[in-house]
Amino acid sequence: MSRIRVYGPLLGTAVLVLVSAAWLIIGLGHVWAHPALGWLPVVATGVLAGSACRAAARQAGLDAATRRFWRHMAWACAPLVAGIVANAVDATGGPVPSQQIGPVTLACYLAVLGIVLWALLRLPSWQRSRSDWIRFGIDGCVVLLTVGTLLWHFSMREHREWVDQTGSAGPMLVVSVVAGLSMATFVKVAFAGAGRLDRGAIYALATGSAISAGFGGLSPFLTPWPYLSTSIVSVPMAALSIHLAAVSQQRAAGRPPRPHRSRRRISVVPFLAVAVADMLLLATSTRDPGETRAMEAVAVALTGLVIVRQIIALRDNQSLLATVDAQLGELHRYQDRLTHQATHDSLTDAGNRALFEQEARRLLGDGRSFRVALLDLDDFKAVNDRHGHHLGDRLITTTSARLAATVGGHGTVVRLGGDEFALVLPAGDGVEALLDRVVAAVEHPADLDGTVVSPGVSLGVTDSRPGDEPAELLRRADVAMYAAKAAGGRRWQWFDPGMDRAGAEAARLADDLRGALPGGQLFVLFQPIVALPDGRPAGAEALLRWQHPTRGLVPPDQFIPIAERTGTITDIGAWVFTQACRQIAEWQRRYGAAAPDRLSVNVSARQLADPRFVDTVIRVLDETGADPARLLVEVTETAVLNTETAAGHLARLKALGLRVALDDFGTGHSSLSLLLNCPVDVLKVDKSFVSGAAADNAGAVIVKNLIGFTNDFRIDAVAEGVETAEQAERLYDVGYRLAQGYHFGRPMTAAAFERTFTAQAATAGA
């Protein structure tokens, strides 16, 4: 039904066009008694075309611009029908038939063409820059001159009788040239694209304009048949093209417009117009000087218009080329920025891992020998935690600048992430001196917004080998760097193959340690803490031990760092705390007030960083019934400084009734400040000051002065590592009242410790 509704009227219009053409052809040999009848089909075609345009405008799914265009086309059909009626009156309304076009007819036809041009120029695809308008105006003038010249030369010039009879030369010429201008505009819009307006509809309109203008120009040839008019065919042809265009738009409903092929087109119309004018000038008879001068003027005018148009086009092209050059330059700069960003660190502007891999692969591909140094700032996390991430970033940027200044053109500096940097250095003599300068430069005190920081740095260095990969170079350098850290930091260390063997051994030990707790291989010993001078037990420290099924007893200094690094220390530490609580609860039950006064349990940095740590302590206390006042939590300075949550956790433990002991005091970097900020009850002086190599010199001075701090802060002091009676006596003389060490007892089982403190209690009672 919809196809009949669309194609039925179109078929009717086509039939009416054929009827009109037949009327004109038959009229060449037959005088029509009633010539007005020939105009009835013409009026009908105009009405049908307007109806089709209105239907196209009402179609669903059209965008606003396309709908507006078809509304304008429907409005244009109203003056078209009026012009047909006026044209029929001009031709048949007088005393004798005539081909004259009156002013009303001319106004109606020009109104049609004007509305169509306005509708075309309002399409969104039409460019409205100043140069576009100028080029359009020049093209319009070229079309007007060319079409007018052709019509005059081939049609009206040789039919002065028709001109004298009808007086229609002017109106006919105006209608024809405006129709030609409309056709040129249709073609231009079709080539430029017209949004969602169907391109087939535009071509139909352009073709119809050309055919209609062509038939209209044949009017002077009908001078012998005054009762005939070419409008009987040219106007229905225009109406048919409008109807075809409307139907084409309706068929395209719901279908996306065909993609416009953006191809560079060279407009040949201006050059073709000049060629036509030149040929007409050559063909003009020289016997008529006036006509010859007129043709010369037309040729000169067309040539001038074409020259102006080309100058404008050349200027636009130059502007376009300048714009393209500027955009290409900007694109190259943007690509350079992207490349730089892809290979450089955003914080320090040093190279990043991608640049390191590029440089390493280039050197490896060239077969050149080089060194890779991996460095890491010691205790950088403490700087971040104590002074904030802003200051930490400042330290990173300062370190990067120092590395770049020290290495200079002798290598490449890259930041791998965090506080980790890598150096790619050429092979040759002098690398060791360069590494010494790097350590000295990085460790130089840095004034960061008024805060002076003295960073430490550890470096690992490795040589490149044939067949290396960048990742393998970093791995070896990383192993060497951790060896430098294990040796105390603030130094550099060459990679040695033995480090790999030690690393593999540590990895195997880490695997075994994961099964130690569920395998029942871990146990707890207790080392006495005694009162001076008599040495009676005042408490104990719970110490973890590992009985490996094949290796035997593994020393704590071997497996504790591995447990810290792998994270298994969290579960193991919770288990040790549970065993200690069970033991102190058992002693409370069995010995009452005579039970040991304190039992110390070591807590690692990993445990302090665990947000569930305090909740675990509360749960264990509830399950075992241990008295919190008899428990001490021993933490190291490094654990407190490197853990953001440490202070909060320790404060919560204090609120529960537990006491806090600061272990290995004096070996960290901020010991005295910790006495102010950390809720410390007991200070355990490191054994290096008590029984180490410096115990008789500087160590003795430190030990003597530390007791003054503890007394002033009302903190208990425990001297660790006491190995001889002389050391115990000296400690007592300077003011220490608690001590711990092999002189008083080695780590022992709970049963052995019970015998010790029960024997001492019995002696004291006697």
UniProtKB/TrEMBL annotation:
Pfam families to which the protein is assigned, alphabetical: EAL (PF00563), GGDEF (PF00990)
Coiled coil: none
Domain EAL positions: 506-761
Domain of life where this protein originates: Bacteria
Source species: Dactylosporangium matsuzakiense
Protein name: Diguanylate cyclase (GGDEF)-like protein
InterPro entries, A to Z: Biofilm_reg_signaling, EAL_dom, EAL_sf, GGDEF_dom, Nucleotide_cyclase, Rev_trsase/Diguanyl_cyclase
Key words, A-Z: Membrane, Transmembrane, Transmembrane helix
